[in-house]
Amino acid sequence: MNRLPGLSARLKLTISYAGFLLVAGGLLLAVVWVFLLRYVPEGTVMNGPGRCWPDGPAPPFIPNRSDLQRAFIPRAATAMICLLVFGLLGGWLLAGRMLAPLTRIADAARLAANGSLSHRIRLPGRADEFRELADVFDTMLEQLESHVREQQRFAANASHELRTPLAISKTLLDVASSDPARDQGELIERLQTVNTRAIDLTEALLLLSRGGRGNFAREPVDLSLIAEEATEMLLPLAEKRQITLEVTGDRAQTVGSEALLLRVVTNLVQNAIVHNLPTGGTVTVHTEAQPNASVLRVENTGHPLPPELVPTLVEPFQRGTERIRTDEHAGVGLGLAIVHSIVRAHYGTLHLLPRPSGGLLVTISLPRAPQTPSFEQAPPAL
User: Fold this and answer.
1) Exposed/middle/buried for residue 291 (C-beta within 10 Å: 0-12, 13-18, 19+)
2) pLDDT, position 2
3) 3-class secondary structure per residue, 88-155
4) For 171-180, which contacts have Cβ atoms below 8 Å and span 24 or more sequence positions?
5) Shortest CA distance to 164 belongs to which of 279, 333, 300, 14?
6) Where would I find the beta strands (DSSP E) of the chain?
């Protein structure tokens, strides 16, 4: 923003310090005048009955108000000038020392504005307002740097994932143009498969972006009903893979988007079914209401997962070495990333825990919906 030039904060503080000293000095001089000089009589003051004795000693000299004013006013003016000079010099030094942390913060902000997010202020010293501001600024820079790195990595991975089906389509078309006798039905089927995967990836990216923004309508949602709907939708897939699907728990009210939360539960249950034992596995969906949160748990059997692999599963396009599949439910590597993004947009938490016997336990905790009185309830008596 273009602003008109003005006085610096250091100069303003310096003038304020000097002005304060001048006001304090003026008040002291006023106190001297009000409570001292005004009670000194005007005119000559003689000690004795007022007669001069030729042979006696001269009466002592007692200054009157005019004498005291002539002696006091020049020295008072000198004191005020000294206060002014001391206030300007001392105020300039004190203001510079006090504003030095702001200079470091401003330098860090300029570096961040120019694209350098790796710089940190790390202001030494004991806690005060400036150091608290510097710490908050360092935390903000750290989060910004993390988000920028995450977005750059996401953009690179998304470009790679989108380029793959396009490259396959180009190869298939090149092969078809070079071999007109090739079976067109097989070519069309493979192109449909590749295009379907590209469309699924694009829709997943759009959903990930929508879920992360948080600008959606919020309404009361019962996680238990969402869990029942998602499991009913995926029951044919579970039966096809001979997976036992169970839903347990009580009502768990929260506030959010029913469509997005349904996508969360659907992704979790589908992952639990797909990444399971070849046959005879189980998937358990449990909901419960805790004092301050509504909890959804999805637990499945499966192959053991390395603990160091689990935290990376919520990153986009991370499938894990043992979790990559090549069938019709291979996915695009965004399932848990979408879940994580939607849960964060609902001010919730996502926790992944590998089971000792194999498989994964996913726990989602969302804020509980505020309790509203029932319409059938009678109003309280007045």
Assistant:
1) exposed
2) 74
3) HHHHHHHHHHHHHHHHHHHHHHHHHHCCCCCCCCCCCCCCCHHHHHHHHHHHHHHHHHHHHHHHHHHH
4) none
5) 333
6) 219-222, 244-249, 253-256, 282-289, 293-300, 349-354, 360-367
Tell me the DSSP string of 251-284: --EEEE-HHHHHHHHHHHHHHHHHSS-SSS-EEE
> What are 343-373's pLDDT values in tens digits?
988 899 999 999 999 999 999 999 987 654 4
Above 70 in pLDDT, residue 86? yes
Q: Report the chain's C-alpha Rg in angstroms.
A: 40
Nearest to 263 by CA among 329, 320, 193, 334: 334
Cβ atoms of 361 and 355 closer than 8 Å: yes
Please give the model's pTM, rounded to 2 decimal places.
Answer: 0.56
In this structure, what token pair is assigned to residue 237? 């897939």
Which DSSP category does 300 fall into? Answer: E
Q: What are φ and ψ of residue 351, in 5° steps?
A: -130, 130
Q: For residue 340, report the phi and psi dihedrals to the nearest 5 degrees.
A: -60, -45
Structure tokens at 286: 């449990």
| Residue, of 258 and 380, whose pLDDT is higher | 258
292 Cβ contact list (under 8 Å, min separation 6): 367, 368
